[in-house]
Design a protein that fits this description.
The chain is of the alpha+beta class. The protein has a domain of 111 residues: Alpha-Beta Complex (Dipeptide-binding Protein, domain 1), CATH 3.90.76. It is built from 17 helices and 19 strands. The strands form five sheets. Strands 1, 8, 9, 10, 11, 12, 13, 16 and 17 form a nine-stranded mixed beta sheet that branches. Strands 4-5-7-6 form a four-stranded antiparallel beta sheet, with helices on one face. The chain has a two-stranded antiparallel sheet with strand order 2-3. Strand 6 and strand 7 form a beta hairpin. 57% of the residues are buried.
Length: 553
Amino acid sequence: MTPPLPPGGRRPPGGRRRIAATTAVLTSLAALAACSGPPKDAGLTGKEVALSTTTPRARGEIDSFTWAVYAEPPTLDYTMAFDYPQNTILSNVCESLMRWTPELTLEPGLARRATNPTPTTWVYDLRPGVRFHDGRTMTADDAVHSLNRQRDPDNAAAWAQSFQNVTSIRKTGPLRITVDLKKPDSQFPQYMATAAGVIASRAGVEAAGGDYGTTGGLACTGPFELGTWSKGQSIELDRFDGYWGTRAKAKKAVFRFLTDPSARTNALLSGEADGGYLIPTESYGRLRDSGVGTLYFGEGLSTVNVGITNMRGPLGDVRVRRALSLALDRSGFVKAGLGGAGTATGSLTTRAAWASASEETRRAAFASLPPTVPDLRKAKALIEEAGATGKTLTVATSAIGQDVSLLATAVQAAGTRIGLDIRLKTVAPNAFTALFTDPGAREGIDMFPLTYYDSITDPLDLLTNFKTGAYLNFAGHSDKRYDTLVDRAASVYRPEQRMRIEVELQQHAAQQLLWIPIAEWPTALFLNKRITGAPATIAYMYYPWAADVGAAR
């Protein structure tokens, strides 16, 4: 999952845009930025972007704060929480067995302890006395029911892939559940800190039936409970004073749906919204220099890519995919499309995802990757060799933010310069998410801008997406050797040993270019002078960040 992504993307995703179709021949992204992009001082050019983990601690409580989000969630059912809008809100209402911290590490959540007595067994001991928003007390029955909902094919769960090795989830004590696996799975315990590990009241979920996640309460345990949902306008969360942990500093959190990037920026500048994540990149400079608040950047575990969705046409030839990669002006896109806050890359995974690997393994992971500097001569030669000169391709774009619109147009410009006919197809912001979930929505589209965020701090979170049948394997790619490597890596619990296998996966994915990597992108957060306390990292997707937000003075 920026707007949107993935699960990780969910997440995905990590990754989550704007422009009308144009027939103009754009000779470079720099020309695009000068002609139709933001003002030259809109980004952060010449200003170093420092990454923070969190923001200053709140000094006291507040009655409420208002948060800007780019789209209305279609549902708040945790089984479908794969994208930014859902998780930004849901992370404060529903909690998981484990918890992601602002430092992007794991700690106990609703489970006070997780143990691994055998390679194929995980045991979770639940916290006693935890209350759901519906007044009931959490038991092992609730945990078993909640996790099994993720495995139910009828739910079309976005997190089902995380449970692919699970054979049973059973109650083994009043506050204990045991998860049995077909084989060792190093990823499963990590995903228990995401929406995949959410525990909700069984009685509450069953009472809501098919309306769960769209009306009424969510029957979860978080520091906030679902309040008023004004369709098309906002969602209000009310502080849950029966919370087992530290009480939220705000009595109410209001999430306003502002699909227009300019409207979001203006709301932040005027105080109509007190803060927000996923800041429009064209507004970075304006917000930083506004004097009304502070713009923060934190680790995002996010890469910006061009996702390939159609292998039946010219893109089925890897030479065409490599040619496009060689023709793209990544550095120009970072300056214009990401406001200068990013790093051009030929890697599908972020460097931070390899943090637990040795220096030698990290070096190997980033060796021999696609170049980030354009080579038009070689790109043109590949197009001619593939017999693709003059072939037509369609890339989706959307009015969510210039990170999407300028990347789509950069792809069009790159294709034009090497002999392809690339056309733009504009998709409404609220429909852009459907590209990740609905094959029908991808009909007639060959590529689309795709920002992917890792839901765990492990490269396999992204690299698994190219396994046969994977949720985000949009191109339908299938390679038995790659599948075998994914399975091998997933079965290894020791990070260093696992990541050596992931190096092979990274190299294979780099050669196939089923997603064309463009840039690493940090998380952006803006807070006005009234509030503080929110984490600056992408932890907000699964950490109850709103509970930390309070008075700045």
